[in-house]
Amino acid sequence: MVELINGITQSFLLLLLAPLVSGVVKVTKARLQNRRGPGVFQVYFDLFKLLRKDSVISPTVSWIFFAAPMIYLGTVLAAAALIPVLVSAAGEKYGIGDLFVLLYLLAAGRFFLALASLDAGSSFGGMGGSREMFIAMLVEPVIILTLLTVALRASGSGLALMAATAAGTPFSLPYVFAAIAFLMVLLAETGRIPVDNPDTHLELTMIHEGMVLEYSGRHLGLIFWASSVKQTVMILLFVLFFLPWPVTAAPMNLVAIGVKTLGVAVLLGCVETSTNKMRLFRVPGFMAVGGLLSLLALVAQ
Q1: Cis link prior to 194 (omega < 30° from 0)?
Q2: Comparing C-alpha atoms, which of 48, 155, 58, 140 is closest to residue 102?
Q3: What is the pLDDT of residues 26-53, one digit of tens each?
């Protein structure tokens, strides 16, 4: 019962704090590009503006189009509840989260969003949905291989057990390989440069933006909010499994996790500023490098 309350509380906190992480990424990019850019809280204002607006709906859509944003947000919040952040050190091995449940929840949200992109009959939406599933086909095997490097060391797929094992594992070369592979997965899964550009609306380059091109108003706000939460979940996985040191008492550990999360957000902004978006058909090679690194990490440990 305590774990259920912790999971609900954690989902609510991530729902509130996820736009702040997105704001840190935007501010970092603006500063590195010598621009004034938006404030760190601008994402909150954008979400509030979208949630107040009515949606323009195509007359050809079905219930899938209306349900997809809520399903997407619901699956992401359920995944956020599984992250072992509020679980105490004494109850680590009794955590409710499981690695494969987390991955299935993220995949379900992506599936319904891609399905909704086809529902409106828009050519751009269909293009964005097909590109998203193409990238998902490349990303999902790599993320499973990468997280298996931690799961095999923990002898289980429980997220809390994996986090506790990662905290007690010394720094090594396999850890470096797995961390780099997961960082590449993080860029692809959250739709960031060099795989995707979250700020573009060019029809030849947009992927995630193409999927949601038919959405507006509060539906679009829910999708953007869910994307921010998903990005924060992926960053937390990276922090817990590949940047777990040092582990201290519970209150200070939460502070350390928050600082490292913001640090990874700054790193994402630096990566986006220093690289260019690659062509779509170069993404398989990019993810193949991540898969090779994760396989090396599995073999070397």
Answers
A1: yes
A2: 140
A3: 999 999 988 888 889 999 999 999 999 8
Contact at 8 Å (CB) between 207 and 125?
A: no
Distance (Å, rounded) from C-alpha 120 to C-alpha 64? 10
Q: How far apart (Å, rounded) are the C-alpha atoms in residues 32 and 24?
A: 12
Distance between CA 15 and CA 10 in Å, rounded?
8
Structure tokens at 144: 């499973």
Asked whether the CA dihedral 168, 173, 176, 180 is positive or negative, the reply is negative
pLDDT band at 17 (very low <50, low <70, confident <90, very high): very high
**What is the rounded CA–CA span in Å between residue 2 and residue 227?**
28
Give the separation between CA 112 and CA 68, rounded to whole angstroms.
6
Name the helix (H) or strand (E) containing 200.
none
